[in-house]
Amino acid sequence: MAFSRGRIPGASRHAFPDGTGTAVVIAWLAVLTFSCIADGPIDTTPFLEQVDVFEAETGGYAHYRVPAIAVSPKGTVMVFAEARKSFQGDWGTQHILLRRSADGGKTWDAPRNIAHVEGEIQANPVALAQDLDSPGEDTYNNIVPIVDNQTGEMHFLFCVEYARCYSMTSTDDAETFSEPVDITTTFEQYHDEYDWKVIATGPGHGTQLENGRLIVPVWLSDGTGGHAHRPSIVSVIYSDDHAKTWQRGDVVVRHPDLKNPSETLAVQLTDGRVMLNIRNESPEHRRAVSYSSDGATGWSAPVFHDELVEPVCMGSMIRLTKQPENEKNRILFINPDSNEPRDPANPEGNFKRQNVTVRLSYDEGESWAVSKPLEPGVSGYSDVAVDPDGTIYVIYERGTPSDRGTHVGFLSVARFNLEWLTDGQDRLSLP
Question: Looking at the whole model, is its pTM more than 0.85?
Answer without folding.
Answer: yes
